[in-house]
Amino acid sequence: MDFDAVVIGSGFGGSVAASQLAARKKKVLILERGTWWITPEKLGKPPPLAPGKQRMPDWLAANKQPVQYWPRPDNKDGLLDVFASVRTGLHRDGLYKFSNFDDATTLTASAVGGGSMIYSNVTIQPDPGVLAQIGLNLGAAEFAAARQWMTDFRGPLNKVVTKIPLPGRDVSALTDDDYLYLDRARVLRDAAAALAPKLGVALPWAPLDLAVIEYDPDRGAASDAAKNHTFCERQGRCLLGCLPAARLTLNKSLFAHLLQDPASGVALWPRAEARQIRKTGGGYQVVFHDHRDGGGEQTVTAPQVFLAAGTLGTTELLLRSQAAGGLDLPDTTGQHFSANGDFGAFAVNTAQRVSSTRGPINTCEVSAVIDGTHLTVEDCAIPAMFASIAYTGLNVLDSLVKRRFFHARLRLAWLTHALPDLRDFLPHLPDTYDPNDARTEAEYVNNIFFFNVMGQDDAPGTFRLDGDDLRLDWQQPIINHPTFAKADQLCRHFAEAMGGDYVPLWDALPTRRLMITHPLGGCTVGPDRIRGAIDEYGRVYDPGGGHPTDTYAGLFVVDGSAIPGALAVNPTLTITAHALKAVGHALGPPAAAPAAATPTSTGG
Ligand SMILES: Cc1cc2nc3c(=O)[nH]c(=O)nc-3n(C[C@H](O)[C@H](O)[C@H](O)COP(=O)(O)OP(=O)(O)OC[C@H]3O[C@@H](n4cnc5c(N)ncnc54)[C@H](O)[C@@H]3O)c2cc1C
Ligand code: SF4
User: Fold this and answer.
1) Per-residue pLDDT tens for 211-242?
2) What is the rounded CA–CA span in Å between residue 523 and residue 529?
3) pLDDT of residue 375
4) Which three-class secondary structure string do you get for 380-405?
5) What whole-number distance in Å separates Cα of residue 335 and Cα of residue 523?
6) Among 74, 370, 483, 558, fewest CB within 10 Å belongs to which?
7) Cα gap 303→312, rounded to integer Å
8) pLDDT: is 233 or 417 the higher one?
């Protein structure tokens, strides 16, 4: 066998698997279809290097790794760079992967570090009742381990909910100086407080835990800010790349903890796209396209394979392996896909300024239970490079003629992957008597609040392969699921409480559809192969076995595809908890340390 283990994908599940395998001194290969992405900006005063360590850009160059750079300008030039970063069949190195299905589009990442590269850093635990409903057996101990892994492998989590860092303060309950809150955090808190008695439901507000470095002089040289010489500058563009490098993305962790140390036993091959897994005697053969080398087909073998290619990637890989005869899989493979109840909406023309370009993408949350359905409402930044488009688009949506014209243009842009030409909508003649003329990007969206909501659907999607393409079928049109009606209604109430006009995101899209940023399921945990594709330890059920709980030896699913239903919160902490549980079980208890010599009794 070439390696002790092959890990497919380098996002959350893949990084957990690699870190745990490395801790047991295993020889590990990570196959990752994407390239590296790093900030093109240099820190004004980089921290000193520890002896024997290298800076990531130098290591990447020395090891001839494919590297791309985040867009920089917060204007239309940056926007063009973002469009150029979309992954398509013709542009395999793109970072943002949009997958269009009936009634829904998913957004996922293709890069070293997986979803951590484009995510908004939120680290949050689901309600135990929600976990019980979907049959996911993860409890307090597993979530504590996941938080610990986040801290150890990445860095301490922080609440970044104020305009400036407030070292040593509990930012969950500012009172007299609550003007220091980021405006949208305060406006969401106040709207929740006003709405709760009106709706007769509890709407607790809280700052989110973010995987972001915050300025922290109390911990002095031991603080992450001091160690890295950076902290969150509230630039409001986390998912488009953090120029001050203040986000705890997994590419940095993989580099710092595993890859730069030749003794770690971990290798990562970027631009290596797994295509199929075949069962062999004693293990597995992974077939992959090596795009470092013209896309030629290569194989590697290992007794253990950890599938961490994400919800879509892992499901597709397993379905393809089955279609090609490499693996016999349970009929449940591909089933129980959940949109995590993802729903977006806007309040336009809010009474208070919400300053949507400032601060991390998400800063705080309100949790609600509406007629038994758990919902989480988060604020969401509008990055400055999208500000004029968002402003223009949202302000024309109340005119039918303009709305149709706007949708036609957006649809064209969607089909051609081109920047929509919105010049007709943009302000043009300069007028220095008009206070609204020549506004900054920030001012365009000062009074537009963006809601990011997660709820509980019934995981009603089923993936199948159509030739080589992944398709998604819904039991019922997903848009009609009651969780979205509840999210829609709740956001409408919030918009009213903020004194704004309500526009759901699906009315701003070219066609009415869900935008899913937290796809879950497809290879889900279940008690046997009739009700799931894997067991609670991520082991893939083997239909060839005599018993419905028989599993393949050495084949594990450790990513979002394992999660058997909606979590009603952002999912990475749960994915991390599942992956740690699965890999921990696969590796068994750590070997006992050599017994210390028993002290010899001296008698007397
Ligand atoms: C805009 C946005 C914001 C988000 N914000 C948050 C947030 O704040 N908090 C949160 O908890 N979640 C957030 N999410 C969701 C989160 O990013 C995902 O749930 C998470 O990354 C999934 O982890 P994973 O391990 O399942 O897979 P991923 O992190 O998606 O990793 C899968 C990896 O596998 C690679 N891959 C795929 N197929 C192959 C193949 N065939 N061969 C080799 N490699 C392959 C991919 O390139 C990728 O690197 C957000 C998502 C988006 C899109
Ligand atoms: S808000 Fe800006 S500085 Fe802070 S983590 Fe996000 S991109 Fe980085």
Assistant:
1) 999 999 888 888 999 999 999 999 999 999 99
2) 11
3) 98
4) ECCCHHHHHHHHHHHHHCCCHHHHHH
5) 7
6) 370
7) 24
8) 233
How many whole angstroms separate alpha carbon 338 and alpha carbon 571?
12
The ligand whose atoms approach the alpha carbon of 383 most closely is: 2
Residue predicted with more confidence, 507 or 318: 318
Residue 233 Cα: closest atom of ligand 2: 3
| Least distant ligand from the CA of 247 | 2
Residue ranges of domains in the chain, CATH in brackets:
5-39+56-427+437-587 (3.50.50.60)
Instruction: Tell me how far CA of residue 428 lies from CA of 123, 422, 433, in angstroms.
Output: 42, 12, 14
| 514-516 and 539-541 strand pairing | unpaired
Mapped onto helix, strand or coil, the DSSP state of residue 149 is: helix
- Whole-angstrom CA distances from 175 to 169, 193, 364 are 12, 14, 16
What letter would DSSP give residue 476?
A: S
Q: How many CA atoms lie within 13 A of 408 on its CB side?
A: 6
- Evaluate whether 419 touches 79 at the Cβ level (below 8 Å): yes
Which stretch of DSSP H or E encloses residue 582? helix 572-587
If you take atom 4 of ligand 2, which residue's CA is the nearest one? Answer: 232
Give 442's pLDDT tier (boundaries 50, 70, 90). confident
CB atoms within 10 A of CB 523: 33
Q: Which of 96, 118, 119 to mutate to test the pocket of ligand 1 (most atoms within 8 A of CB)?
A: 119
| CB distance 360 to 381 below 8 Å | yes
SS (H, E, C) 339-380: CCCCEEEEEECCCCCCCCCCCCCCCEEEEEEECCEEEEEEEE
